[in-house]
Amino acid sequence: MFIKEFNELGIADIAKVGGKNASLGELYNQLTSKGVRAPNGFATTSAAFWQFLEENNIKYSLQELMGQLDRSQFANLGTIGKKARTLILNGTFSPEFTHAITVAYQQLCGESLLAVAVRSSATAEDLPDASFAGQHDTFLNIAGGKEVVKAVKKCFASLYTDRAIKYREDKGFAHHDIALSVGVQLMVRADLGCSGVGFTIEPESGFENVMLLSGVWGLGENIVQGLVNPDEFYIFKPTLRQGKFPIIQKKMGDKRLTLVYAPANAEETTTNRETPPEKRDSYILSDEEIILLSQWSLLIEEHYQKPMDIEWAKDGRTHELFIIQARPETVHQTKNKNIHISYQLLETGKILAQGNAVGTKVKVGTTALLNTPGDAGILDKNTIIVTDTITPDWDPLLKQVGGIITNKGGRTSHAAIVARELGVPAIVGCGNATANIKNKSHITLTCAQGKTGYIYEGTLAFKEKEIDFSQISLPKTEAKLILADPDLAFPLSFYPNHGVGLLRMEFIIAHMVKIHPMALVTYHRLKEGTLKKNIEVITKGIANKSAYFIDTLAQGIATIAAAFYPKEVIVRLSDFKTNEYANLIGGSDFEPKEENPMLGFRGAARYYSPLYKEGFALECAAIKKVRETMGLTNLKVMVPFCRTLEEGKKVIALMEDNGLTRGHQGLEIYTMVEIPSNVLLAEEFAAIFDGFSIGSNDLTQLTLGVDRDSDLLAHLFDENNLAVKRLLSMAIAAARKTNTKIGLCGQAPSDFPAFADFLVREEIDSISYNPDALLQGIENMNRAEKGLLPNEEKTLHP
After folding, report:
1. In 327-413, which residue ranges form alpha helices assigned H by DSSP?
2. Strands (E), 167-307
3. Domains (range + CATH), the chain
């Protein structure tokens, strides 16, 4: 009646032991046989809780207290909560219940006096729309029967924390209907190892093919409380199932604190210590351990048949990994994935701080700098809280505000989890927000630019638009995206599309790698000085500097390839001009100075040149890693600015020398059509390459002799010019004749409906758009295919 062992429990026992403990029982009973490790334990029952209330005559007293709650302003929430907790803490457990807990603890530990985790589990927990994350208390490192009994009572009392009371009010749960079960579970010595959380879907966008694991050194409360920025690992589930290397992204957090057990007789059971520098600068898990945890997480998700929120720990003595909790993910399961609300910032300004974006919204409001929840005055939906970190004690305030900004915390911190559940935009882990943002100032918070969120000074204009993707039909002519930023890949994958027609590698090199590839190739030969020190700071802990380039570039490319898998993603080899390459760290030492970089040492000519050949080898190695090691064979490669047939053959041969053989594992190699020579010799180029992609900007400037960057000549730059269109028509006709795929990347088909009509009538295979132009482009293409666009064409072949 009082106690249930984990091996007696399953998911059907939520009414008896709450969602958390029922899930632990399910995990222990159903998945340990499949290799998933879960610590054993037992749970007190809801019947034991109800009997405790009856024996101490406090059931009706609690109901009376809840009846006195101010449900409009919650002004007396703190007073009511404290009285309710005092009623429970002053109660007495029956001898039978105390004995049952003590015996169960002794049986769990055997001859030893082992430490256990004592966790609260409410009987309404972990429902599809309610996670109860952080609402009730957990006590770690509890040893001895008497101490376990004390912790059980404290858990009972935590049913009436202020945050739990407010949470039930918000969710519409009747207080008197909720019981509390307590799970007692063998402690994993994560204080000597590491621990963390995981989501079997990408938590910001709800993208289901990627899972996120994050973790810190020591006990996991630091990650939940948001006290440290954790390591993060993104895993692609389809290639995990295929046995390929599935880690598509790794991000090292600062992990500045390590939560460990406190010394004996200390007032608190745990304490934080500074993490040693060598551990801060190393990942908490090896790749093999990340993959093992991912495999377990996948088994758990498949068992429950829904996305899951998981807690894990690694024992520092035995080096064994364990799953210590698993519950349904509650944010994205209830969302309509066809309805998308897009936010676009229309202005920019001074950036005050930046951090991890939670959600995709833009919020303009007035700041409230707070040290504790008690500092809050009157808050409303125009208030943006700015604080060091958010703990569960803040939860009653969070539903009142329009935005959250913190110095500390990662994507899996309590602040991030609650912000997602409430639909409140948040930027966590800024580091310097409270120092840079003034109290009662007007700011603009934007989470609409990918994984990095920005806080701007002042009130900036933005646009909000609701789109129902289910009402958008894709045209027969393929509509693809032009992408550069991996942070935008997952949310953009929900847009109607046929894949990515152009992945601009330059953005990843400039914003993620940051260092010129030749500076990394020749690092060992660089003289001691500022450049070498800058490279060492960025590549800290990585001995092989070339590997840094390969791995970082591969992660950026893989993120986009995974987001659109199995649709094709075409990555263009680097197409910086020399003045742009020179802006990379160390770049000025390796780049020639040119009068006209637009027509200079760029594209194919660079790749086989001794000045860049070793750098090009790194690009090839990154692409090979994405395709062959990670298994993302939907990735295709495109050669830019290939002036002659001989250049095309040289680059194809050089790519083969670097492990990228055309046709191997389905590898297709395209070339850009952006020089008149590409059009005039299109049939010959088709014998060298698998496909064409028309770069309308360069083709227009080289056809009309107009510098596309010149303000003085801007009125002459026109893709609708008859000469340009004639070349486009010739290129498409040659592709048709040689059965070669051909697409176009550019703005014109979305800006000019007649231009889209022209391309559709010429039977182009695909048109690729920047994200903000995609939907208009699709509309123009659909209307063109139905003959609904005005035909403004002049004769192409007089």
Report:
1. 395-398
2. 180-186, 194-199, 210-217, 231-236, 247-251, 257-261, 270-274
3. 3-187 (3.30.1490.20), 191-328 (3.30.470.20), 339-468 (3.50.30.10), 472-785 (3.20.20.60)
Q: Which residues contact 239 (CB under 8 A, 6 or more apart)?
A: 245, 246, 562, 630, 631, 632
Edge-to-edge strand ranges of the sheet holding 321-328: 247-251, 231-236, 210-217, 194-199, 308-314, 321-328
Element at 741 (helix H, strand E): strand 741-745
* Whole-number Å distance between alpha carbons of 167 and 164: 5
- Non-local (6+) Cβ contacts of 315 within 8 A are 188, 189, 190, 192, 193, 321, 322
CA distance 194 to 319: 10
- Give the dihedral sign, CA 296/300/301/305: positive
d(C-alpha 189, C-alpha 198), whole Å:
19
Asked if 163 and 395 count as a contact pair (C-beta separation under 8 A), the reply is yes
Cβ pair 155, 161 in contact under 8 A: no
Distance CA 491, CA 563 (A): 9
Backbone angles phi, psi at 139, to 5 degrees: -125, 125
Measured distance CA(247)–CA(213) in Å, rounded: 10
- Residue 221 reports pLDDT greater than 90: no
User: Cα torsion for 417, 422, 424, 425, to the nearest 10°?
Assistant: 30
Q: Enter the pTM of the model.
A: 0.88
> CB atoms < 10 A from the CB of 797, how many?
6
Three-state SS sequence of 697-730: HHHHHHHHCCCCCCCCCHHHCCCCCHHHHHHHHH
- The residue type found at 468 is D
List residues bridging with 355 in a β-sheet. Answer: 453
For the chain, the distance separating the N- and C-terminal CA atoms, rounded to the nearest angstrom, is 93
Q: Is the peptide bond before 39 cis (omega within 30 degrees of 0)?
A: no
Task: Using the Cα atoms of residue 98, residue 101, residue 102 and residue 104 in order, give the sign of their dihedral.
Answer: positive
Catalogue the active-site residues.
414, 745
Joined tokens for residue 187:
């402690």
> What is the C-alpha separation between 798 and 796, in angstroms, rounded?
6
List, for residues 471-513, the tens digit of each pLDDT value: 999 999 999 999 999 999 999 999 999 999 999 999 999 999 9
Give the separation between CA 297 and CA 468, rounded to whole angstroms. 32
For residue range 280-321, list pLDDT tens digits in order: 999 999 999 999 999 999 999 999 999 999 999 999 999 999
What SS3 class is residue 603? coil
> What is the sign of the dihedral through the CA atoms of 45, 49, 54 and 60?
negative
* SS3 state of residue 321: strand
Give yes or no for a contact between 42 and 70, defined as CB atoms under 8 angstroms apart.
no
CA distance 100 to 2: 7
**Phi, psi dihedral angles at 255 (to 5 degrees):** 45, 45
Say how far apart CA 219 and CA 314 lie, in whole Å.
9
Tokens of residue 253, six digits = 């957090």
Range 664-678 burial, b when 16+ CB lie within 10 A, else e: eeebbbbbbbbbebb
Amino acid at site 632: L
Q: At how many degrees (to 10) do helices 645-657 and 613-624 cross?
A: 60
Residue 704 CB-density burial (10 A; 0-12 exposed, 13-18 middle, 19+ buried): middle
The DSSP 8-state label assigned to residue 160 in this structure reads G
Dihedral angle, C-alpha 465, 468, 473, 474, nearest 10 °: 60
**Residue 207, class by beta-carbon neighbours within 10 Å (0-12 exposed, 13-18 middle, 19+ buried)?**
buried
What helix, strand, coil percent values describe the chain, rounded to 5? 40, 20, 35
pLDDT in tens, 595-606: 989 899 999 999
